Amino acid sequence: MSKVTEMVTKLVQPLAQARGDELVDVEYVKEKNQNYLRVYVDRRPDGIDIEEIADLSDIVSEKLDELDPDPFPDPYVLELSSPGLERPIKTRSDWEHAVGSYIHVGLYQKIDGNKVVEGFLKELSDEELILTVKDKTRTKEVKIPRDTVANARFAIEF
Which residue ranges form the domains of the chain, and what is each CATH number? Predict the structure, then answer.
């Protein structure tokens, strides 16, 4: 995590929590010669609406403007949004909420010839995930060691 994203996380986390929101992720990226500070927030169990995001954006913007010294080396655009239906699964809480849900898992190494597995998260432990996966006309369980998981997100089943 960069110093900027770390600092923004520490600033936004209590602001979001005070409103009953959850800070999902912070990104500080450069795209086409423009810096973007992206803050993703959500509210469980029903999600967050645009008015709530706009209110939090005003609060965060004001707090960022008050920082002295300014931690941002260059001008940036602040974007606050919901992570959407396919939000990333990163924290322990995210993983616990994902049990029973359809998820997409990217792997560092292949399992059964695949570097991507999608299915319902049946079980979760510190050592492995167990997904129920469709394989043509039948279902099977796939055990995935936690240390092989590169990334994970909620997914939409088709």
Answer: 3-81 (3.30.300.70), 92-154 (2.30.30.180)
